[in-house]
Write a structure and sequence with these properties.
- This protein is of the alpha/beta class.
- The protein is about 25% helix and about 20% strand.
- The chain is built from five helices and nine strands, in the order αββαβαβββαβββα.
- The strands form two sheets. A seven-stranded parallel β-sheet has the order 1-2-3-4-5-6-7, covered by helices on one side. A two-stranded antiparallel ribbon has the order 8-9.
- It starts with a helix and ends with a helix.
Length: about 200
């Protein structure tokens, strides 16, 4: 999300999460103040190879409830981040680690992260981290060896409904916790089409 009125409009659809990108090279870079939104929606900061301290500052500044790590963050980094934010005051903050997939994926790389993140997120490998509007081969997730819940991302839109419905009925979706939608619902980067989002939600739910 990037524009205040648009955030408020999307909030009326009651998504579980709203994302704010704190990556300066992104066309969706967010550098203003998050308006008041319903408390049931988790404000999620999206970071790409940021420092632990920078993430912590953004958490406090914007009262974030979740953090999405979209870079090459190591297991050690995730452990340090968890230690930094896991105080009684910040006990609700979730950590989501992103992994990009093209045609195949080495799932053994996930194991060390299981103890230091709350969710995985799988999206499509592209030139830029996120927002490429392309899906990967979701059947790859039939080999998912973990019980850690994950977000499915990458090119999800109204035109992928039938494919998505088939995925949600398959073994591959067993631990699918959430759907992450973005570029397929945009008018311009960071500005979401409310009617498209509303239609998508009505079909999926």
């Amino acid at each position: 999300m990037k524009y205040e009125d648009n955030m408020k409009a999307v909030s009326q659809l009651q998504p579980e999460y709203l994302g704010f990108i704190f990556y300066k090279k992104s066309s969706r870079f967010f550098d203003t103040v998050i308006p008041e939104i319903p408390k049931g929606i988790k404000k999620t900061g999206v970071f790409v190879n940021a420092t632990v301290e920078d993430i912590f500052k953004k958490i406090r500044l914007h009262d974030l409830q979740a953090v999405q790590l979209h870079g090459n963050e190591s297991v050690q980094f995730c452990q340090e981040l968890q230690q930094r934010i896991s105080t009684p005051l910040n006990a609700r903050i979730e950590v989501i680690k992103v992994f990009s997939i093209k045609d195949e994926f080495d799932f053994s790389t996930l194991k060390p992260y299981e103890s230091c993140v709350d969710y995985f997120l799988f999206d499509t490998k592209g030139k830029l981290p996120g927002g490429n509007g392309v899906t990967f081969d979701w059947t790859v997730l039939e080999n998912y060896p973990s019980t850690k819940p994950f977000f499915l991302s990458g090119g999800i839109g109204l035109e992928t409904i039938s494919k998505l419905e088939a995925f949600l009925k398959s073994k591959a979706s067993t631990y699918c916790y959430a759907l992450d939608v973005n570029s397929k619902f945009e008018i311009v980067p960071g500005l979401k089409n409310i009617e498209k989002l509303k239609g998508f939600k009505e079909i999926i739910t």
